[in-house]
Design brief:
The chain is α+β, with helices and mostly antiparallel strands. 54% of the residues lie in helices and 15% in strands. β1 and β2 form a beta hairpin.
Amino acid sequence: MSLRLRSVLAAAGATMLAVAVLGAGLDILVARHLRRDLDHTLRTRAVEVAQLAASAPALVTTPGALDAPAGAMVEVVDNHDRIVARSLSLGGRVLPRTLAERAIATGRPRYATVELGDLKVRVYAAPVAEVGGGGAVLVAESTGDLRSTIDTLHGLTLLAALIAAAIGAGAIALLTGGALRPLARLDRAAGEIERTGDVTRRLPDPHRADEVGRLATTLNAMLDSLEHSRDAERRFLADASHELRTPLTALRGNIEHLARHGATDGLVADLQADAERLVRLAEDLLALSREESAPRPSEEVRLDQVARASAGDSIVVEPVTVRGDRDALERALANLVENARRHGRGTVVVTAESRGDLALLSVEDEGAGVLPSERERVFERFQGSGSGLGLAIVRATAERHGGVAYVDGARFTIALPAVRKASESGGHASGVELEKGTP
């Protein structure tokens, strides 16, 4: 079933259930009130008859004296269970003697609901004082009116439940129709984007500040990210193709020269250099791909030990631990050292230190360094010498470790969350998350 149909059925069912519960409670209250009124009427009539029997015994036996406009059935019996008087409304019926016997024996009145032929009646039996001759008076009245009233109430409750369910279902249908129309437009637009594969298209803005509007905004932001990712992928493929074309062209030319003129020491050296360049580029592409797709590492690594294993001219370290991939960190540090040797000058200093909750792994030379306007661009793919991927791998490695890579002048730094030991953090090792792009 559609969401709209499920909502309509749920609203109708919930409304009917609520009205049914309300009707059941109302039925109990009304039935109790009607029975209480009937019992009060029977008791009042019984008191009247008992007073009449005490004040004018001869009048009780007069035909029609016990009949009342209300139509109650009255019967008076003596202490020996003999009928003394009865109302004409009884006809050929006789009220149950057991109630009279119990009332006489206990001296207490009592109520009962009994079957009197084809008639269901409510009976009240009360003892008569000895001054009135003793015995008991029984007053009965049909419960048909009470039952009819309750049945009418049931019918009205059912009708109200159906009407309320119809109104609730109609209201939900209107509300969901208005709410789902923008979703239907979003669905059609998304289907068209899926069919054409055109991520430059956007979903229509429903111009709403509710969940539907926020969904459209989120989906359009996702499409923006997909478009940017596709553009980045295309640029990457174009740059990779361009970078591969140069060594492949040189390699092909050297092979043709080899085929025509034979091998020379210089030609063999050129072939080896071309092959090494291709291998280096392939390895860097693979490393970058792995860094961008690999999960975040959990092994504890000492950055000071990583720094000591580097090829820096000078090493300055202090004990500092991170959760990381040792091989990846060593490769990133080697890329930074190689970058300093290629583009810097003087002594290359490798530093591992802690600063608050951060672990910093830095490489610095004595050159002028990177201009402020170039600080972000140097970490992009194919921007440096060599394969052009060294600093891109450094940034990808830092981000996979939950950190950042940045440059300040001639100092390149990888900042990672430091692992504090139990003695430093109250009993639990912990770290800190860094936002990308900021030192």
